[in-house]
Amino acid sequence: MQAKETLQSLIQNHSFQLEFLSDYRNAALERFKSIKFPTNRDEEWRFLNLKDIARADFKLSTASNIQVDVTPYLLEEAIDSTLVFVNGFFRQDLSRIENLPKGACLKTFSDAGEPQYNELETHLGSLIHPKDDFFVELNSAIVDNGVLVFIPKETKFESPVHILNLVTKEAEGAVIAPRCVILADAFAKATIIEDFIGLGEFEYLNIPVAEIRMAEGAHLQHYRIQRESKKAFHINRLGTKVDQNADYQSYTIHFGAKVSRSDVRADLTGEQSNSILDGLVLINGEQESDTHTLMHHQQPNCTSHQLHKVVVDDKAHSVFNGKIWVDQIAQKTDSFQENRNILLSDNGTVDTKPQLEIFADDVRCSHGATVGQLDEEEVFYLKSRGLDELTSKELLIYGYALEVIENLEVESLKKQLSAYVSTYAHQVTEHLPA
Amino acid sequence: MLEIKNLHARIEGEEVEILKGINLTINKGEKHAIMGPNGGGKSTLSKVIAGHPAYEVTDGEVLFNGENILEMDPEERARLGVFLAFQYPVEVPGVSNATFLRQAYNSIQKSKGGEELDPLEFDDYIREQLKVVEMDPAFLDRAVNTGFSGGEKKRNEILQMAVLQPLLSVLDETDSGLDIDALRIVADGINKLFTPEKAVLMITHYQRMLNYIEPDFVHVLVKGKIVKSGGKELALELEERGYDWILADVHTNGAVK
Ligand SMILES: Nc1ncnc2c1ncn2[C@@H]1O[C@H](COP(=O)(O)OP(=O)(O)OP(=O)(O)O)[C@@H](O)[C@H]1O
Ligand SMILES: [Mg+2]
Fold first, then answer.
1. For A109-113, A294-298, B51-55, which range has the lowest pLDDT when averaged over its residues?
2. Do A399 and B54 make contact, defined as CB atoms within 8 angstroms?
3. What does the pLDDT read at residue A114?
4. Any idea of the CA torsion for A263, A249, A106, A244, to the nearest 10 degrees?
5. A311 touches chain B (CB under 8 A)
6. How far is A403 from chain B (nearest CA, A)?
7. Are A203 and A173 in contact (CB under 8 A)?
8. How many angstroms separate the Cα of A64 from the Cα of each of A61, A69, A97, A164, A271?
9. Of chain B residues 142-171, which have a CB less than 8 A from chain A?
10. Burial code of A225-245, b = ≥16 C-beta within 10 A, e = fewer?
11. Domain boundaries, chain A
């Protein structure tokens, strides 16, 4: 990263679109000034290679009306509920929002009306921890037109919401700071897809932040698909508050980026709430992918599930750090966590650290991690049916990854992702010793 | 069709042999049964025939239609027509039964220079095969064996046999786990698939399977050796008397023929 002063002055001289966020930005910029760029000496950043980000000089992304063909990325189920951002800027011409339920809001910050402004001001930054994180503060210091989703009480979004974040070559070398606030009122129901796609192979830094607040009995499916350019850096943070009886189901899929980092935190703040934080990471070449999660059980009788599956090939490097905290009050917690890694090459690396911190005495918690190759019995089984070694392995890798994809309830997205999984499985088996 | 001569095998890297000189000849048109106490080496024999990499053959030969198959990979054996219905079928999450079966079918067809089927053609084909084992088409869309009940897995093995049309089918305890009706259905299926050009080697602990699929020969495998062979009456005798009398013979006389 260039001298922080340079970046700071870029920010200070940048003309932002949304005036009403300037206080928020300025305050963040002040905090940002006192934060050092993280290094491997910081416990939270121990395993991730940050050197390439440190080395790069970033500018701020600027708006343009460049033509982009979004059709390959559109999801037919979400055709009336798609917001498209190009290089961090909202594109009305490419978006389409129709037939929303009464009282619902699916808007950019700039389009949200007065009452929602106030909502926004209270929620922005309220659910992300820690607040003194370099990338979070950078996002906050340059936050502009994000997305506000509000699902009113007892309302269901029939079609999934697709927030498509595209990055084009124009944004080479730029920092992009998507921001998303999702508010689900009591017993509201929706599926929300945050999709990050790089159109080509070039360097940029994408630092999305999302905050989700779920009231009693709300139900959310939340998919975050990271298919950035293989030269890009993607560092995202998500905080979710899950109230009584609410059900939060998050699936994070990481395919792209040279270096990617995902920080997810789910606070189970109401009794009988449930949270799923499942993940799939498929990496090869020199990709690095780091997932940090915190599942925080703060009330009794909650359940949580976390299956984080990874495939590593070539010199790729995966990090998983998953914490489950169970507060003393959170009796009868039922929590499952597993990190499964398939390491296909000698030069790949997997660092995994599942952690349990339990202060309640009457809980059921399990956690574990495995790192290994493909299962020999499974390979033999397929071969005994006439499939050759490589095809067998390809099919097993495909199946391993698809098990996560299958949970997604949006068919067209499943199809797009399965196609990617299939290409990946083919690529990584091609050069395996037969 | 299958000639096993003085076959010795052990787990790769270990000292003790599990198979200690197996001799067995199976001609086409024949049905054989192997019985014997737990841990005797029946499954090991079946896996060695199929080419499981965990086992190392230390002596002997396995000829399939005159060709030594011991150096071949499992898939090559499968393409020649060797099929193993597993005692414990393996779950393959995320891979649908239909996809798996089509790929397996096509790879075998390809090696034979036969016609490969696209998904639609294969769908027609497999629906016929489902009838052989009276299986619900819903199983085609499910991941291979994943979450299948014990009996469903066994039936799925025979579905694979129906699809792949092997010459030699080694059925390792296909009967265990099947309920009374399912056993009849699956056994009927196996009989339907049988032709004078094919052969079956059944591994079983019980006579009930053999009531449906009448064996021409019954062998008793104990501690890595076939210690007794006979006709189908031998199975009835074993059902009646257990293995003690044979084991006693083995102890006093060494391996008996
Ligand atoms: N992969 C393995 N690792 C360790 N031991 C093995 C392995 N395979 C076989 N054995 C041992 O070899 C012996 C023979 O096992 P095998 O499964 O062939 O017996 P079996 O005759 O099929 O028994 P059952 O009737 O119970 O199915 C047993 O003692 C078993 O524990
Ligand atoms: Mg056995």
1. A109-113
2. no
3. 65
4. -100
5. no
6. 5
7. yes
8. 9, 15, 22, 17, 47
9. 143-144, 160, 164
10. bbbbbbbbbbbbbbbbbbbbb
11. 2-270, 376-434
Token pair of B256 as six digits: 């008996």
- Peptide bond between residue B53 and the one before it cis (omega within 30 degrees of 0): no
Q: How many CA atoms lie within 13 A of A317 on its CB side?
A: 13
What is residue A389's predicted lDDT score, i.e. its pLDDT? 93
Q: What residues in A contact B111, CB-CB < 8 Å?
A: 386
In chain B, count H helices and then E strands: 10, 12
Token output for B143: 């991941």
* Residue tagged 């790929």 (tokens): B103
Contacts 24+ apart (CB under 8 A), A61-66: A61/A87, A61/A88, A61/A89, A61/A171, A61/A174, A61/A175, A61/A176, A61/A204, A62/A87, A62/A174, A63/A17, A63/A87, A63/A89, A64/A89, A64/A170, A65/A93, A66/A168, A66/A170
- The Cα–Cα gap between A328 and B249 comes to 67
Q: In angstroms, rounded to a whole number, what is the distance separating the alpha carbons of residues A297 and A268?
A: 5
Task: Catalogue all structural domains in chain B, each as residue range(s) with its CATH number.
Answer: 2-253 (3.40.50.300)
Q: Say how far apart CA B81 and CA B72 lie, in whole Å.
A: 13
- Residues 91-130 on B with a CB inside 8 Å of A are 92-95, 99-100, 103-105, 107-108, 111
pLDDT tens digits, one per residue of A254-270: 999 999 999 999 999 99
The count of CB pairs under 8 A between chains A and B is 82
Does the pLDDT at position B61 exceed 90?
yes
Mean pLDDT of A279-308: 97
pLDDT score at B256: 45
pLDDT for res A1: 64
CA distance B190 to B184: 10
**Stretch (H or E) spanning B132:** helix B119-132
Distance CA A340, CA A342 (A): 7
Cα–Cα distance between A323 and A337 in angstroms, integer?
A: 9
Helical (H) or strand (E) element with B124: helix B119-132
Instruction: Find the radius of gyration of the CA atoms of chain B.
Output: 18
pLDDT for res A237: 95
Rg (CA), chain A: 21
**pTM as predicted:** 0.92
Phi-psi region of A425 (alpha: psi -120 to 50; beta: other; left: phi over 0): alpha
Closest-CA residue to A157 (of A192, A121, A197): A192
A226: pLDDT confidence band, cut at 50, 70 and 90? very high
Q: Is B46 in the pocket of ligand 1 (CB under 6 A)?
A: no
SS3 A67: coil
With a CB cutoff of 8 Å and minimum separation 6, the contacts of A391 are A382, A429, B103, B107
Contacts of B122 (CB under 8 A, 6+ apart): B98, B101, B102, B105
Cβ neighbours around B118 below 10 Å, total:
9
